[in-house]
Amino acid sequence: MRYFIEFSYDGASYFGYQIQPNQISVQETLEKALSTILRETVKTTGAGRTDTGVHAKKIFAHFDTSRPVNENLVYQLNGFLPPDIAVKRIFKVKDDFHARFDATYRTYEYYITCEKEPFTRNYAWQIWKKNLSLEAMNEACRILFEYEDFESFSKTGADNKTTLCHIYKAHWEPYPNGLKFTISANRFLRNMVRAIVGTMVEIGSGKRTPEDLRTIIEAKNRNAAGISAPAQGLFLVDVGYDFQ
Hints:
single chain, alpha+beta, nine-stranded mixed beta sheet, 5 helices, globular
């Protein structure tokens, strides 16, 4: 039988979600816990493959098991897993329902702090700039909706079957001592959000104009865009499905 698991994690101590040779990952940690409790080898498939240091407030994975599963598994897993991974719920789905391919949208948030703050250093990009133009950055966000090919924001050398993405939401807003960026799309390319954020900060600081974003996107070249924002400010906050 196939089950979905909803969970969250602090990515500061992990080399991303996906299993990596000789490195600790969220997937490996979760699978070890499930396999130990269910007493069989359990493999998971996540809704996304977050990079090293990226966090998830809400993410899903599916797994198959021949063992009976009930609500006690949530409590057992949370007792077994380290403090930086928390399971919210587990529920049965159709045998062919897929955590990655059946997701209808994903939403990320990115946090910037504009002053040095030791308690948020693992959860925000500290750039110490108070003069970033929200108006310019949000003008650039509106330009994103005019395009679907975001190859310029994809990691160089990434094995993409397509670079087309449909963005549903993108905007900046004030956040205590900084800014928060929210973006939602049907899919994201590897490193896409961080590349967009890095480019947006250049626009907000006046190094580029909002209209420059058109040239960047139409170039279909990663070198045309800005730097990638640091991983620690990025959070996967929601993944949508049609469970009916």
